Amino acid sequence: MFVGTVMRKIKSRTWKKQRYFRLQEDCMTIWYKSKKAGNAHSTFSVGDVEAVREGHQSEVLLSIADEFPPDRCFTLVFRGRRGNLDLVAESAAEAQSWIKGIRKLIDNLENMGQREKLDQWICDWFKKADKNRDGQMNFKEVRNLLKMMNVDMNEHHALRLFTMADKSQSGTLEDDEFVLFYKMLTQREDVLRVFQEYSSDGQKLMLQDLKDFLREEQLHEDGVQQYALKLIERYEPSDTAKMLQAMTFDGFLMYLSSSEGSIFNPNMVDLYQDMTQPLCHYFISSSHNTYLLEDQIRGHSSVEGYIRALKRGCRCVEVDCWDGPNGEPIVYHGHTFTSKIFFKDVVTVLGNYAFKASQYPVILSIENHCSVEQQKVMAQHLTQILGDKLLKSPLDGKIPIGLPSPEVSLERKILLKGKKICGLENCMNGVVDDPLMGEVSDEEDTAEIDDDHHRNDSIRHRVKKSKQRLSKELSDCVVYCKSVHFSSFKHSQIHSKFYEISSFTESKARKHIREAGSEFVLHNARQLSRVYPSGLRTDSSNFNPQDMWNAGCQIVALNFQTAGVEMDLNDGLFSQNGHCGYILKPTFMRNTDERFDPENPQNRDGYKPLSLSVQVISGQQLPKVNIKEGSIIDPLVRVEIHGVPLDQAKQETRYIDNNGFNPVWHDTLQFTIHVPELALVRFVVEDYDKTSKNDFVGQFTLPFICIQPGYRHIHLLSKDGTSIPPSSLFVHVRITKLM
Questions:
Q1: d(CA 85, CA 74)
Q2: Cα distance between residue 248 and residue 242, in whole Å
Q3: Is residue 349's pLDDT more than 90?
């Protein structure tokens, strides 16, 4: 890998170009260039690679399978929404060298400690700034580096630090001297102040000092001595301090920068909720038109959409099925110019990836536009490809009285959501209705137009509601998720069965929430509901899922391919409970005896509002957003509360001029939270611009109930939801009862 290899980069059957790939000396960067493009080259970091797939495991490589054998082919899958890199090596041995090599490097990176990661980060900056590649940095290179790092420092101060770090007095900084320079540059005065407040001698925290800090600031109550000793053992770098059962400033900073010093309670990162409740008692991570990677009109359809969603813990994916050539059903967004893929390929991917991120059931939501003949083919593919993973009959073979739970009985099962010829009870008793179905449900209108928008004839292709014939084979695959048309809450209360599920456009759902919020919550305590984006969202934008969660809607389907605040909220909610894709709803939304109205939350039993106080202290190494030479950000922090309407709020700090490296605010923001169980808190950093819209820098979203109080770091994520170490915010959080 160090020597370099010529491989073919493949984009399609017709686009196959040779590129020269080489691993850089840092063992972190892969450099590649065209054989013809002169000096032009590209690089990517091993840290950006999520996985390496061997063989023909992408649509692109499958399309050229007749040309290149699988043992020469591999795919690099990147984090976030970046496209894959498909490669063909000159020989099987060469392919194996790169496959094993990159996997080993990914492993090394994942097993790196905090200190090693920071050293690696410093080393990366050194390489970027060392323009003449002589392994040394003169003062001019250091000045340029400061600008690259988002630091606006006066020349006199920069020269003073440079001279102090230049121990050899050579006029340049070498490796160790640069590390010293970096440490002086990043001296955390904000953390030092807290450390010295609790340190008896200003040099270290003795065990009692650390216990006092944990009790008074971090609000730890039980087993404080044991926890303090564990922190010393885990984070203290000095063996001498460990022997004294003490913590130095370095150890204290390591603890505060770790997952235990994070704002997100580590006890809630892993699976911690009761998973034995009925399916309708959970919020379920759900994707809309999963096959699309871009917009809804001309976008590319791909099985990659399913792989990405499932690997993110999504538990409900959607297929739009239409009659295809040679009797093979196809998947695409009907009546548009989106590309087409085969239904059987989607099912194969589902079988391979459904349970990589979570063992809990996956719901396959089928929008069926196929003839009876091709529906039989769909049923055949589902049965043959998925085998035992497909749930085809009620558990225990008995007529059920309620929805099963995600755990045990439904683990590693795929449930089909779609039309069914008869009720579950009749089907089990052998009574079959006429296979001529009732009205096509809302989600099967070809272009959904919300009632409260102007009707635009150029994109409106309303299909008359019609009767649809169903094949018995496909109908039999539907057990616990029978799609039915929604009439009214009163009708549902009297006639609906627990296994029936209705779909609502976002505007219809909002209308029901406005007019009958508590009835919608009650409906969702008994059975499943799905909410999906308006047909007018041709750009694949998303609606705010929080409004729907406030009413207890379980399957809130979003366009996973579109980054933004809506997907941040989705990622935030499902970041707890082991990223398993299921989050238990609050008790007052599961209990059919309670009346909870999201519009009037004060009226519920057990109403206990809380006060949230966030002191935004400082920021660390915020990423540059403007690649213009010498441009440095003016950061501000906005804290947003997303929850019931009464809780929706946002407040901002002031902006700091020209400092993205270590801005200090010490601004306190206060909020009242009326329904903490439903609230999400989003921290956003922006680059202030007085003449135009602020630029996004980073964000972090988490459930209010997962917040750890005290002095905490918030590790920021990019627009794509991927981590951007070591960018963080340092805050102090207090939560107090108001009643």
A1: 9
A2: 9
A3: yes
pLDDT at 458: 43
Helix, strand, coil content of the chain in percent (nearest 5): 35, 25, 40
- Residue 281, both tokens: 């008692």
pLDDT at 437: 47
Task: Judge whether 701 is annotated as a binding position.
Answer: no
**What three-state secondary structure class fits 29?**
strand
The pLDDT of residue 138: 86
Determine whether the annotation assigns residue 33 to a binding site. yes
Question: What is the distance of C-alpha 104 from the center of its chain?
Answer: 25
Q: Is 579 an active-site residue?
A: no
Q: 0.70 cut: is pTM over it?
A: yes
Which of these, 132, 95, 129, 117, lies nearest to 46 by C-alpha position?
117
Q: In this predicted structure, what is the pLDDT of residue 429?
A: 64
The C-alpha torsion from 647 through 653 and 655 to 656, rounded to 10°, is -150
Q: Do the annotations mark residue 13 as ligand-binding?
A: yes
Instruction: Confirm whether residue 30 is marked as ligand binding.
Output: yes
User: What CA–CA distance (Å, rounded) separates 331 from 338?
Assistant: 10
Token pair for 408: 């045990």
Q: Lowest mean pLDDT of 95-99, 182-186, 327-331, name the range.
A: 182-186
Residue 225 annotated as binding site: no
The CA-atom distances, in angstroms, between 113 and each of 235, 723, 730 are 10, 16, 20
Q: How far apart are CA 38 and CA 402, in angstroms?
A: 67
Give me the catalytic one of 281, 333, 381, 642.
Answer: 333
Q: Is 211 annotated as a binding residue?
A: no
Q: Is 173 exposed, middle or buried (0-12, 13-18, 19+ CB in 10 A)?
A: buried
Please pick, among 56, 281, 288, 512, the residue that the annotation labels catalytic. Answer: 288
